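Before surveying the methods themselves, let us examine one representative protein, written as a sequence plus integers encoding its fold.
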Amino acid sequence: MLDKEGREITYLRISVTDLCNLRCKYCIPEEGVNKKCHSDILTFEEIEKVVRASAELGINKIRLTGGEPLVRKGIVDLVNKISSIAGIKEVVMTTNGTLLKQLGKALKEAGLKRVNISLDTLKEDRYKNITRDGKISDVLEGLEAAKEAGLNPIKLNVVLIKGFNDDEIEDFVNLTIDKEIEVRFIELMPIGINGLKFHEKFLSSKTVLQKIPNLIPIVSKDEFSTAKYYKLEGAKGKIGLINPISHNFCSKCNRFRLTSDGKIKPCLHSNREIDIKSALREDKDIILILAKAIRVKPKEHHINEEDYKPIDREMYQIGG
């Protein structure tokens, strides 16, 4: 289905929970998260209904997110169900990787195609600090388990944070020399907690090119890719730069989002949300609601405008 700007919307990101087993400082408040009542969260049956209706409108790619999606009980069964829906070509997941050692093989067998693993530092002490006591060894073991399970190509999502990991850019790039892995450097976005000190922490992805000037540009085969790709000469893997702030990709944005509490977000950086949970629980036709969400998708975000105010919700409440 086309939105009003003529963009073909084919990609739905679904947050299955706002809970996480880590408490990363740029994502989760220090006091933690108030757990929602069970009835406030969409059931897997309701999520499956949304995916079926979305497929009728031309959605063919689903990304499961959180919070941390692997903390939700029954996630493997959900992957199995939605990957079997006619029209859905690809089910993928963004995860912190800490539970992939236990679940990677089962997820692959259920129909998951690949994973994006969020990892902002390769240093054990820094990882423990930013995640408030997480263990980087869990992530590294999860990465290997995902590789062995065939959840390839594995992508590492690295949020660039000034004063935190800008001295590790070369280390991350060097991972691609001997590993068939895609390291994606992502610009920090002014959402929730990050909105307060955004300008102090923001680092343009062009910093990567300044630090590693011998990166070679390569052309992506995916016309909807949000990344600009590069590689080191002779490297097995590649580098992706995702620039939602310095060079937005709104003109080719092909996605919308479903939050764990049943709201459709046509644009990540807008407070506009459309309730679909009520319609699901009243057994109403949700195709009309999904079609409306696509039609009202804004032309672009307004992050770089002087009067822009960060959206009300935190990223863990929306879905990473």
Observations:
- The first strand starts at residue 11 and ends at 15.
- The mean pLDDT is 92.
